[in-house]
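ok so heres the complex, two chains, lmk if somethin looks off
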Amino acid sequence: MAAGVAAWLPFARAAAIGWMPVANCPMPIAPRDHRKRHDELIILNVSGRRFQTWRTTLDRYPDTLLGSSEKQFFYDEETKEYFFDRDPDSFRSILNFYRTGKLHYPRYECISAYDEELTFFGIIPEIIGDCCYEEYKDRKRENAERLQDDQDDNKDCKLPNMTYRETMWRAFENPHTSTMALVFYYVTGFFIAISVLTNVIETVPCGATPSQKDMPCGERYTIAFFCMDTACVLIFTVEYLMRLFAAPSRYQFMRSVMSIIDVVAIFPYYIGLVMTDNEDVSGAFVTLRVFRVFRIFKFSRHSQGLRILGYTLKSCASELGFLLFSLTMAIIIFATVMFYAEKGSSSTKFTSIPASFWYTIVTMTTLGYGDMVPKTIAGKIFGSICSLSGVLVIALPVPVIVSNFSRIYHQNQRADKRRAQKVQKARLARIRIAQTGSSCTGFLQSKRNDLLNELLELTGSEEEEQQLNKGMSLLESQHHHLLHCLEKTTAHEFVDEQLYEQNCLETTIQSYTSHSPSFSSQDGPIGTCCTRRGKMNSPLPNSSLPLQPSHQQGSLQELSALHIQCGDKLPHTTSRSSLNMKTDDVGLINCKGSQITTAIISIPTAPSDTTDGGGLHGPPHINTTASSNVIKVSAL
Amino acid sequence: MGAVVGTLTMGERTKGERRRPSRDKIDDDFELSIVCHRPEGLDKLEAQTNFSKQELQVLYRGFKNECPSGVVNEDTFKQIYAQFFPHGDASTYAHYLFNAFDSAHSGSIKFEGFIMALSTLLRGSVREKLTWTFNLYDINRDGYINKEEMTDIVSAIYDMMGKYTYPALKTDTPKQHVDAFFQKMDKNRDGVVTLDEFILSCQEDENILRSLQLFKNVI
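and the predicted structre for the whole thing:
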């Protein structure tokens, strides 16, 4: 029950008078208001700023500091006010929570300070209203990430008991962890650079000797380049094998992009080794050498920027693909147009539409090589249109990539928010449980407590009863009383779901094997409501399950019942009419030293040693005698 | 009457927006006039009802907190009432309650109507309470309660219990309940219950009399 409508509880209870003529049973007694006093203003002095509110406003949330007796610790006798040495600005939103029932998160507030205030005043942050909750969660996540980053920076401390393999992996992933790792990092980087450089220089024509024509350096200094290549590939191979050995999940490592690049970088060399110097395959061999350029991608292990770029391009792939598609459309259109426009002119370069593709691309990208130019007037017109539209085409990719980059960035945040939404559902579920817990399950729980209560009312003194009721505020007890009245009006009880399922099962069993009158369905509301139901699911604290042999009947129907054993005997047998009163009031007067046990009895019970057996037939009837002193409160 | 009607229209309409044929629902809500209602003076209300000044203050503060505009319409009423019965569906019964409170059938309850009804329910005589209850049951206000009306009311009450009850609710449980009710109340067996029959029967039943006094100290 939202405390915001706590003010309407008196109205709801007054409206309950409308049920009274319909009800056939007497109503339970209303909870007494022990602390009946006029509503008074409370002064809350928070670091000098005085807030005032009604006492009942604060009492709406009894499980917080201000709503419970915990605030008595802060009471100042001389000034008659409650003094809190906390931030007055944050206190504003906290007090508004009591007033309106909604907790808001002010944007200017620091998230950790706000959290501290909430914890101090005993308010769980999940209650923050939907209007402010996203902001709160975002800020909290940023804070957590910042803390995480700080922690990551400090993570370089070597954990004890790390296996050699784990150490190696850590060294590979974070080169800054140890000097060995750093050395290794720089050495591999150096060799990558060397390898790329040799690939490049290989093709440069070296100084021409008068005897030979200009040949590239690679052919001149074959041995030197071969040695260099071998050395690099050896280093790369060793590095790859070491990474493979150290990887925690070898399969995943082999699937990763970086390892594929490594493999592609060193493979051509080995293929070249095994291949003989055959003329036929030398062409293919040359092609393979192209793959050596992939070694430059190994730099991405060393450069964060390269990785981000790669990731951006990868995620922009669909947009770039669409861009390419629209470009292709435009190219085809213009190429067709140019071809047919230039068809007439003689010795034209536009021999076919695919040949015109080249012209269109060069013109649209504003390159304009000039190797193909239109000669006819129509061709020139369309050519100019083509180049003008090409400008537009150039303008498109840049914002697309930029917007994609920002979209990717926001998408990351949205992914986190989506994760948060799953948490949000969990949060809503938690809030629902917390709020309805006080009404639904709280009510069911309090009914179980009621039985204990009544017993203690006889035996114990007022303190014990108050001890049990300590958790429940007056508001809650009044609300429970209202629900209790509804139960009595309709002569049905609230139960939780599993009990309901159980009962459904039982009634179906009943319908099968009832050779004795089934009570639950035939008894009208008059009969059923006048018995005290004590169907317990959870065992009571000092319960035992005595299976008294007299009750072991071979019937499938079972009831759970409450045995209240009284030490003393009851003075008289209770009849049905007085049962109405007694079960609601304390029908177990003069019962001292009681002990509640649960037992399973089966129906129909022939008159067993307890004389209550007869009470199960027809209108329930509780008899007690001196001998047994067991009052069976049946669940029927 | 000290009622002041303040009309506030919110939402500016520019030319561009006029072009839009379909407006968002939020705009519609904003463009509704918000009527503020202020109740009569405290002294007058105190004279008309059986509440003391403090009690009226407490009641009005709660009322105004939930309904800042000063009036309760049926949806808000249903929402508020449903919060007290989370197990089942309280909307039907809340509808009947709303009609009982809204004696003028204006579609909204003002504070005065609210207070008058509460005064009858909490501080009125037995006869007044029973008359109010009779008006609650008599849905069409024809002076008679017939079986259909009673069945509607009882079904609405059973709806509030929800699904998970013990023993399980059967479809004819309300009907049985209504039959038992008519058995008790309809003295001349003519199929309807009049006000006098109702009051007479209730006064004969001790349980009912006792339960009517149950909520004396609610405020």
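quick notes: Residues 2-23 of chain B have pLDDT under 50 and may be disordered. thats all i got rn
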